[in-house]
Request: fold
Amino acid sequence: MRFIVTYTALLLACSFLNNLPAQVHQPYRYEKEQKFGDEDFTVISLEENGLALVRETRHYKGGNRTWELILLDTILNERQHLDVEIDQRKTLIGYEYDSTNFYLLFKSGESIKTILDLVEINIRTAEIKQTEIKPELAVNLTHFSKVGNNFVFGGYVNNEPAVLLYLTDQQNMKVVPGFFQKETELVELRGNKNSTFSVILIDRSQRDNRKLLFKIFDSQGKELLDDIITIEGKRSLQTAIVSSLVRDDLILLGTWGGLNSKQSAGFYGVPVDPFTEQPITYTAFADMTNYLQYLKEAKRKRIVEKTKVALQAGKIPDFINFIRPVRITEYDKGFLLLAEVFIPSSSTAPFRDNYPYYAPYPTPYSYYGPYFGNYPSYYNRMYNPFYTDSNTMRPADDIKITRSILVSFTPKGEVAWDQTLELDNIRLSALEQVSDFCLISNNLYFIYKKESDLRLKKVNLETGEVSELTERIRMKSETDELRSERDQSGALRYWYNTGFYVWGVQTIRNTTSKEEGAKRVFYVNKVAIR
Reply:
């Protein structure tokens, strides 16, 4: 009897702890004073190795511009402060990292055939090595990733996709065979955990039974896997992202819609299996549990019914959204895909660099990728480090990010569940990731930065219980007073384990010092969920 009582008490205690409101912990903060004219830092996650801060300076030497590099540890202590001299005509276009080094890729202007500068920084010793890479082809670069000891580049040659591999031991760039296909888009190129890399191509022609091509190569460019998936009917796979072999199984996830449509009608999933024909599982937005919860019940029911009728007739549903996937995570029950719904500015330019195809997402890919479905830029290094130009859209443009959606997929590509987060009037001048998440046991935590606040939503996936929290971004000292936060400065990203990092630019004042006036600082706070 005593055992039964104790066991029952333990269950009640666990249930109580599981349903406690979410708490945000901000144990560490880094600050660096910002002077007039200082550029903003690019913040790069090195996961358990800390963070890297990178920015160009106003200092020049012999035709080179000085770039400032700061390495922070996981408690945001400054570990290294370095300067790197780079040709003043070149800008940062990509970054990568592994357990030992991180890498910066520089390129000059809009030139498509130019020498690339690859800078390697040892995370522990701060040793710097610079290498010039000379592509033999005139390639419009769109992707960059490290694979083994080598580096793989993706892009376009005369509007046809191309993949090139830089072999570090030979200091030579070679063309990976099997590409250069007309009316085809290079949607994804990603390094995997096992020193291989994955490539996704999508047929963008108007013919029936178009194809999605998925390939895996080793670090020397040898093809290991080739899977061809048929896209039936008038549906278009607008985006695609592949898991990175944390699990043994591979899956392709993304959004789908009508041919030539700028908006999506739902999500899809398909497992990779070159030995068996795998059908694509399409899920309409209206068929999901929580996607339409922001609407009034009467309108929601109408959309669900109209979607059902459209799907039964083999048509594309009328309910569509602008939506961009931003992060994929593998976990014990399958795969999690984070996406964000947005409303674009009507003044957004339809294309750039004279390419006659519409690129729906204002990303670096739309600079050079000539086809419709360019996958939106990845601001989390775990997915694609191709650098995001903050001037992708004109400052006058106004994009509203309205909601975040997290979708759980089974290994077969079926939607298991979905949860949503309403975003509070987030307006940006460029399309960027706003929110992020972590999953702790059966509790899902959404989090995002709203001006000088952190907004958190906790969802218990077993009970459906929801709690929300708003917490001020913590100052370094209790005597510091926040005067203002620069509009649209900084963001929040997942870091490692259950932690995040948030950064921005604030004007602060120490209330105990009459002589010291207000100062502007760049800051990074470590954020943990507990």
About this structure: Confidence is low (pLDDT under 50) at residues 1-5, 7-17, 348-396. The first strand starts at residue 24 and ends at 33. Residues 164 and 175 are 5 Å apart (CA to CA). The longest helix spans residues 2-18.
